[in-house]
Amino acid sequence: MLKKCDLSKKTDDRTFARKIAPLQERLGELQRQLRDEKIPVIIVIEGWNASGITMTIQELIRYLDPRGFTLSSIGAPTVQEKNHPLMWRFWNRIPAAGRFAIFARSWYSRALAEETDGPGWEKRMDRSICSINRFERVLSDDATIIIKIFLHISKKEQKKRLLERETNPLTSWMITKGDWDFHRDYDSYLPVIDDFLKKTDTPYAPWTVVGATDPNHTILTCYATIVKTLEKTLPKILQKKKQETETRARFNPEIAQVSRRSEAPDLRERKEYEERVTAAQKKVRDCQYLLYKRNIPLAIVFEGRDAAGKGGTIMRLTHDLNPRGYSVMPVGVPNDNEKEHHYLWRFIRNYPAAGNITIYDRSWYGRVLVERVEGLCTKPEWRRAYTEINEMEEEFRTWGGGLLKFWLEVSFDEQLRRFRERETDPLKQWKITDEDWRNREKWDLYGVAIDEMFAKTSTKYAPWTMIESDDKWFARTKTLETVAEYCEHLLQ
């Protein structure tokens, strides 16, 4: 891609002044339209050192409403960011619906800087490319417009600009030894960057390579690229959203049925129950310290029928844990800010840092359960969520994280008994709501969704563990012993 770029193109001042004004006006109009239609936009400006990234962005944002965009200048990761997967820090920066997110350098620069150091970098880069393409595809599928521009200059032009900045007292602070080191390796980096661009040039997030020798040409081309892409993509997204909303959540009866009705042995003796739970709690606590010492993050997902005992089980699981090393994320209806982002956003930004544990009391699986059954998302949205979820979990596991997924299953009759017990017990009445009763009326519909979820998301790297929960003692014991066994395996 870089070899085909014409670096000799120039635009004279008169032509520039004539062409730039309507583009600037049009960009402002499009920003307002995208805000009204609640469509997010990501603009990535990448390029060589001294290629004009700051200058280009400065010109672009002059005619944007500053209330409608955020600018992220991406540098070396913080300590917190180093303790998460590569794309975590960028998930935290994706735009809300109707806003622009502009990146002065992005996941591309960071992948090049962080993954090409040391032996085995080719394999690490391939993993990064896979993660980047998934990230961009997921956002594009959710109606985010992604525009990527790479500013290309020759090695000779780069040297000229570095020297100009270095000899200017006002800009000399900008030039570091690292800039000159990178310049000396320009010829070595050129094929690596070119290959990187080719492998991430996708239909949903294509690259535009701009010859950036002449500032007028650079700015004009960037403006034209952004305006043209928005004008071309916006009608397609509006049409797609219209088609998706016309057909709300429906069910496909032709799905694999996974049995959730296995018999659970009763733990009749309380002494046996307490001994086994206490032993498992001690093992989990010991594992927590070893996970922290080895910088291994662990995510534990709890899903299940209403009144299946998730809360009580989580209480026993965390009973002996060091509170500074774990957090519990109770998942309910998303707030207004969360609704303005991709549905995975609120979960990924709460990933456990290296060495920590995050327990999700309900999770991203709400997309293919309650949101599907209640018609809170469209059929195309929940159908593609299976792939999005599987890829997200695989990426977390590949990064080195541990992931446990529990489904707590309770029978129809036992759920009714627990509902009635909650209604009559003053200490438990807060646990029962009208929504619980409404969900019970849709027992079979939820059953279809649950079975399909198991069939499509129980993978070799993140399988589901069924917890038979009619007997709470058995459910808690099995869960804690499973966590202890998994952690011990993870630490081997």
Q: What is the end-to-end distance?
A: 45 Å
CATH class of the largest domain, please? Alpha Beta
Give the neighbour order of strands across the main sheet. 2-3-1-4-5
Structural class: alpha/beta
Shape assignment: elongated
Approximately what portion of the residues adopt beta-strand conformation? 5-15%
Weakly predicted, low-confidence segments? 248-259
CATH topology of the largest domain: Rossmann fold
Helix fraction, binned, reads 40-55%
- Number of discrete domains: 2
If you compute it from the alpha carbons, what radius of gyration comes out, rounded to the nearest whole angstrom?
26 Å
Supply the CATH architecture of the largest domain: 3-Layer(aba) Sandwich
- In round numbers, the mean pLDDT is 92
The tally of beta strands, per DSSP, is: 10
Helices and strands, in order, run as HEHEHHEHHEHHHEHHEHEHHEHHEHHHEH
Count the helices. How many?
20
According to CATH, the homologous superfamily of the largest domain is P-loop containing nucleotide triphosphate hydrolases
Biggest beta sheet attributes: 5 strands, parallel
What structural keywords apply?
alpha/beta; 2 domains; 492 residues; Rossmann fold; five-stranded parallel β-sheet
